[in-house]
Amino acid sequence: MRYENLSLEQILRFTQAELKAALAAELESRGYSPVVQEGYLYAPGTLPVLLVAHLDTVHHEPVRDICRSGDGTILMSPQGIGGDDRAGVYMALRILEQARCHVLFCEDEETGGQGARKFTASDLAPDVNYIVEMDRRGHDDAVFYRCDNREFVDFVTEFGFQEAYGSFSDISVIAPYLGIAAVNISAGYYNEHRPHEHINLAHVEHNIARILEMVMTPSGQFEYIERETYGFGTFDSQIRLWDHFPSVESTRDDGKMLMPVPETAYVEVNGRQVENGLAHFMDKQGIVYDYLEELDVAVRANYTKAYEEDGTPLKFSKSAATRIKVVSLEEAMARLV
HEC profile for the chain? Predict the structure, then answer.
């Protein structure tokens, strides 16, 4: 039976508070008994898997205008589409249509996992085999953070996902609290934390199908095993991302010489450090750009600065630079519509 779900566009347009209330009503209509508390919404299921997504976004105003690419597969918004993590919320609801998993929606992940921490301060402790969060950029990534259960890694990657690395998400708090292995899987959004963030609907649908196949596959319980060392920091999955960047040898007559921000560096937006998993580039004036793989262009990232690991401003290296076409945000959005 297919339920009448909240649409993705509704989910994208809600404020965090509106979305929390709408999800509680949606889950009740499906026969769940949601527990609504400050910081989170939890609903117990019958399938021993816990799905996790977060309700907040970094954008300061609600989505009003939604732009679609010509083929309808790419969504963007001048207000910031908020795929991080509204795409994950939508994916969880879609999976729940066919698999009655436990589900946890957390508030305020972007400010340090506040909702997840409130959940771990409660007396709720669902008995599940593993945890699946959908709060990761891209299409194929599976991030395990400090969970080092190789049997679980092998189980997840059997469904076509590739192990990647990240710094923090809600499961970084929830998994050790429950003592259960957890993974954060790509939710089909890209360029998160930026006005030109976008959602690839084909990638969303593909991962809904893959996660559904995974949660419906019988398994035992996977224990949370703490990783002894974790030297990647905010390295994330950049090695795989660099494969898609223009090579140093490539040239464009109408381009600008830009240097990729190296994996050892970091960027700040409005004075706040962000995870360097985006495709950042920098010119010789120190201006930072975001690379849009779908268009093979760069867009200037406002209020963004790049720094060395020791906190000093990143220096431009001509030998590491490549020529990339730079366009305005408006032009990039117009090309995607």
Answer: CCCCCCCHHHHHHCCHHHHHHHHHHHHHHCCCCCEEECCEEEECCCEEEEEEEECCCCCCCCCCCCEECCCCCEEECCCCCCHHHHHHHHHHHHHHCCCCEEEEEECCHHHCCHHHHHHHCCCCCCCCCEEEEEEECCCCEEECCCECCHHHHHHHHCCCCEEECCCCCCHHHHHHHHCECEEEEECCEECCCCCCCEEEHHHHHHHHHHHHHHHCCCCCCCECCECCCCCCCCCCCHHHHHCCCCCCCCCCCCCEEEEECCCCCEEEECCEEECCCCCEEECCCCCEEEEECCCCEEEECCCEEEECCCCCECCCCHHHCEEECEECHHHHHHHHC
Positions in the chain short of pLDDT 50:
1-3, 230-253, 276
Residues 110, 244 within the same domain: no
Whether 254 is covered by a domain: the verdict is: yes
Q: How many domains does the chain have?
A: 2
Whether 92 maps to a domain, the answer reads yes
> Which of 155, 184, 215 corresponds to the end of one domain?
215
* Same domain, yes or no: 141 and 206: yes
Residues 19 and 144 in one domain: yes
Residue 225 lies in a domain: no
* Residue 46 domain boundaries: 8-215
Q: Is the residue at 229 inside a domain?
A: no
Question: For the segment 254-308, what is each residue's pLDDT rounded down to a tens digit?
Answer: 588 999 998 888 888 877 777 645 588 999 888 999 888 778 888 888 778 898 8
The whole-model pTM stands at 0.70
Q: What angle do CA 168, 192, 174 make, to 5 degrees?
A: 25
Considering the domain architecture, whether residues 169 and 60 belong to the same structural domain is answered as yes
